[in-house]
Amino acid sequence: MTAGGSTGDGGSAGVGPGAGVGRHGHHPGYWPSPWPVECGGNRRQKAATGRLDAAAGTARVVTRANGRWNVMVIEREPGQWYLGGTMAAFTGPPPFGWVERIDPDTLEPLASSPELPCGEHVWCGAILAHANGSVHSVNGSYLHRLDPGDLDIVAERRLPVDRSHNGLLALADGTLITKDLRLEGQGGTTVTRLDPDTLELVGEPLVLPEGSMGRIAADVAVDPASGGPIEHVYVPGTEQLWRLVVTADGLEVDDWRPRYRRAGDDSGLSWDACLSAGACWIMDDGDVPSVRRIHHVEPNGRFDEPPGRSLSWRQPAPWYGPQRLLRLSLADPTDVRSIEPFGTAGGGIIAPPVHVPEREIAVAWDSINGGLAGVDTAGDELAVRWQLDVRPSMQPVVYPESGELVINDLTESGSDDLVVVDVTSGELLDRVATGSRIGNGMFLTADGAGGVFYCSTLTVARISWT
């Protein structure tokens, strides 16, 4: 197998099937939208076009408390927004997945899907707006294809593995790819590729030798052997990062397998990867006690008695190691650089980092101990440029043009605020209360009009700066 690297942040225009998969360009697997999938695209760079100019504006907040586990918002047609999630039903009646088409001004539903079976697993799935016009939803052990208007079920598929699945992406040929979530010692993760119309399997599911907790990322690269395009899927394992090659009828394991955890490391597992500037960026220390508890029961997240505070991510980490940010070269799997931005023992996170290539800055944080850091990535070695005393936990949005990063800060008073930070200097530009008192690892989405959608347990909000 080839060990070719990513084509970088300029996209893969002109290299075949992946043409047009640029940073802000149209990916052929999705409906032509600026934000048709989580993180804004398969590289998970979380980058939005334009700028907020939050420091010069006034924030307006619309909050809807719906009592559900809100996971993400995506856009299909301009102004056509979908909210997807599950139920925080850790005990009691069975949980289910759901999708709503929402009014972006009021956040109230304009259409709602039926209750979507999830195999009774309680975990955050994903939705996307596909090039075939449908909205797809993965939740628990089920995948659904929904009509974009009334959100009726067009097709339903029970996935090959009866566990929670996290992450759902469209590849360059339009096929869908997802995987189950397994922690250390729970066997190998199964990666499944499906037809977007029928939801039938494309090739046999691929079982990796390791479990995997983080969501998958993907990109189209130039194959150094042929000079043509090659599509890769990146899967964070329990010790290594795995790269899969997309073939016409299946998936194959590449020989690029950098190791981010070694014997003797007192650290935790990686969440998702961010592909940027020829590297794969991850943070370790993600399988915090609450994540372990949810995924060590079956169905995942279902308990005989209310779990209470045992599902809080604020519990002490089960390891001593500080939080690490790692850069893994896409061209050389032996080139792995890491930094401990805070140096505080027992670090922990429930969301992945972001790299901003235009600013040569990576942003990392420690949710358990608190702290947000900008890491200079211009040289061979990583170096902390700034630190900020906030406690983030979720998937941010970044505006490369203005250098603004939007992320949450769960305050000591219990308010989950949004903060806007200058990624170059670390200056706190603005702080806005969302109306939510639960911070988790869910997704922010750029609304394309000077604001962001915020998703958390029990609450969804939209914050706009004018």
Overall description:
The protein is globular. The chain has one domain: YVTN repeat-like/Quinoprotein amine dehydrogenase (Methylamine Dehydrogenase, Chain H, 7 Propeller), CATH 2.130.10. It is mainly β. It has one helix at 289-295; strands at 59-75, 81-86, 98-102, 109-112, 126-129, 135-139, 142-146, 153-158, 165-170, 176-180, 190-194, 206-207, 217-222, 229-236, 241-246, 251-253, 274-276, 279-283, 325-329, 336-339, 354-356, 361-365, 372-376, 383-388, 397-399, 404-410, 416-422, 428-436, 444-446, 451-465. Residues 1-22 have low confidence and may be disordered. The strands form 7 sheets. Strands 4-3-2-1-30-29 form a 6-stranded antiparallel β-sheet, with no helix packed on it. A 4-stranded antiparallel β-sheet has the order 5-6-7-8, with no helix packed on it. It has 1 helix and 30 strands.
